[in-house]
Hints:
Blueprint: H1 4-10, H2 21-34, E1 37-38, H3 41-45, H4 57-66, H5 73-86, E2 90-98, E3 111-118, E4 121-125, E5 138-139, E6 146-148, E7 151-157, E8 163-168, E9 175-180, H6 195-207, E10 211-216, E11 219-224, E12 227-232, E13 235-240, H7 244-255
Amino acid sequence: MFDTAAYLKALDYDGPLDPTADTLRELHRRHLIAIPYDSSLNTARGEALWAGVDIDVDAVFDAVVLGGRGGVCYELNGLFLALLRELGYETGLFAAGIRQVDDSFGPDLEHVLGFVRLDGELWLVDVGFVGPSYLEPLRVVPDEVQPQFGTDFRVVRADTGHHVVQRRGRVGDWRAVYRFHPRPRAFADWLVPSPELDRFARALAGSGIVVRGRAFEGGQRILIGTRLVVVEDGTERLRGLADPEEHARVLAEILRKDAATA
């Protein structure tokens, strides 16, 4: 059963609860540190990736916050938005298409993220994206550079009418994270039949690649199959984990489970 006090305890948060930007930043970062992303849940769902998008908040809270399992975008962001509403924030949903390895974008409804309207400003909140991405919420102010832990972020407008979230580390140029239309969505939007989403779901299910990730103070660790991405102080490192024991150890650390049972 959803419980605000238990949620805040799981996030190791005992600070102010007034709905301010500072509180929002702290809760967002702590959420990414406390609760992992885990796409292995999609294995059982097969091509029906969004069938449970309109989550049972109480059931998902019990499984994720109290039970300690990871979640996917709509579970993690759905829970977090419920928490923010309890604390007095004005929240809503956006849909995003994630940048693919060839720099194209997935379907507009590929990803579920949240937003907050606060003091006349629009903020992106997303604790359900494995990354690399922002650890603290982003203000939707066109072209404004927003530094976070050695990495710069900005939101730019594209010719397609989308807003694009971009990131830039200490080395390299700007790269897209995902794009979105700043149009509020409802969970029901993901339940409307869509050939584009169906094709994407089939391709994702066929890849067999499981992605897990968790943030730490100032950075992120993302395990994509046997490839480990570590982002720390604006520097991104990628290496393969060929040793099964090392893979199990890293996986256990991300999921915070005993390596013998991971």
